[in-house]
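1st attempt posting a full record on here, be nice pls
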Amino acid sequence: MRILSWNINGVRTLPQYHPWNTFKTFREILTHLKADVVCFQEMKTARSGLDRNIAVPLPFDGYFSFPASKGGYSGVAIYTDSRPAAPLKAEEGLSGTVQPKPPLSQDERISRHYPCVDEMNLMPDEQGNKPSELTSLDGEGRALVLDFGLFVLINVYCPNETSDSRLPFKMNYHFMLQERVNKLINEGRDVIVAGDINICATPLDHCDGHLASNAATFYDHPARAWFRDWLAPNGCMTDVVRTFWPCRKGMYTCWNTKICARETNYGTRVDYILATRGILPWIKHGDIQPPIKGSDHCPIYIDLHDEITTDDGRKLCLREVMPRPAEHNTAPVPRLAARCWDEFSGKQTLLSTFFSKGAKVSTAASASDSSSSPSGSPSASPPQASAISSTGSTVSSAADAVLPDHRETLDLANPLIHESHSQSAESSKVKSTGAIRTDVEEQEKRSKLPTGPPKRKLTDVPAARTKPSKKLRHAGSTLDAFFTTPQPSQSSQSQSRPSPPQSQSETNDDPLVSDCDPRSPDSDYQLALRLSLCLDEDIPSAWSKLMAPIEPPKCNVHGEPAKLYTVNKPGPNKGKTFFLCSRPVGPGYDKGKGERPRGEVDHRYRCNFFKWASEVRRESSSS
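the predicted structure (as tokens):
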């Protein structure tokens, strides 16, 4: 039996990476992980955002915890393969205050005792106030508790210290976790805690932990001091994976993807599987899985023995001490399981059912029926008036067949074409049918008009709107016409005073257009050739130099071309580009004099070179 834990950094983003993007269902993703119990952290979704594919990927049963107020934040999940591992009970949160509707009964609860504020030494906030209740600590969807009989599994996502004001919340959550484990141990239960603790246990678990400046003050942080006291040999919990790899370096589970730290394994180990001493004989092996991508964390796992021998010589089989699951369709599961929710158990109609294929077919069928007989017009044409003569009806129908209605083929992109077509069509129609139109036909046309106010058609647009613009009036003129002297009109010539005659050289003094005949079809081409010959030879080179990419500067330490980056953080510099040293980050890379002592800098990795791209462009243009 394998228990796996992984901070996936969003259940929606995981299928965007290989090999997860090759799977069609979420069940295939869980199967590919090859674990019987899968613990996910940072689901970053809400209950309303879960579909059946993620919530009920049979034969896996899903258990979820969501934040009470923040959407797309935090959240944990546990998937259990109901064939080898079926939990007996399930709870959300650590304090016992997060309850479903209706609340869990005493028989459905895992514990009889839960953490209490009065029994815990909590850390005060910046104003000196301590929490009066644990609901606020347990309201971010950070923990799930499942009872497997042999042990109690806690999947936890501990808070990160994003700021100094967040430290009391982080520490108090750790205290609540420790108190919940202590309550279970006092009740005689063995506990496995899996998840993202967000703490480095030892300097060996930090990429810069070996540096003298960090090793001397490593446990000065209150969270690291608490974790050291909770782990063996000081405390009751054992770091299972580290027991199998006690001296292994670089066993990191989290990397900063913004600086591409995973390429050089410049990371930290903040994901753990902890266990009490009573369950340790069942644990066969444990390790991390750095090759598995899809998040800024990697999975960790432990394997359990199928059979063990006790100190008194008895053999115990895992299947015998674990609850034996029945068929997943008929087995009773804890009420917290997703397949017991109303939306997935058939007790509630989902909004997505109204957009199923059947609904689309019916809508399409109704649309086709409505298109065959459009609303607002009768299905059959009204009976013709008896007063219409046979000759008139025959000629008018023939005219309609020969002259189709041009309004149906209106070219909205070119109203001038439509105007010319409509005018020619109307004139031809009048000429062909004007001689045989009768008063009865005119009366029939008037009777067919709507009784209400007439609707404006495209052909009824006022003439002021259909007048061609100035640009369209000159659409037929050539390019060289813009370089010649405009000829005055006849009216202006008659009104203006006579001027003395000018010579040919005075009228055509521009050599570019002197030989260009505006009436020639190749006048534009000839003018373009003359313009290109008169261009300065330095202009093309100046344009190429202006549009050329910036030549990257060289960093001061390595003398290598720097790498271009873009600011993505919201603020006044968002979108600006800058250059950094192109070497990857690593242990001892130069963060600057304020963050890294000069004696601990390792020049094999990135130096502290920085320069704005605008400054580089300015220097290159001035040189």
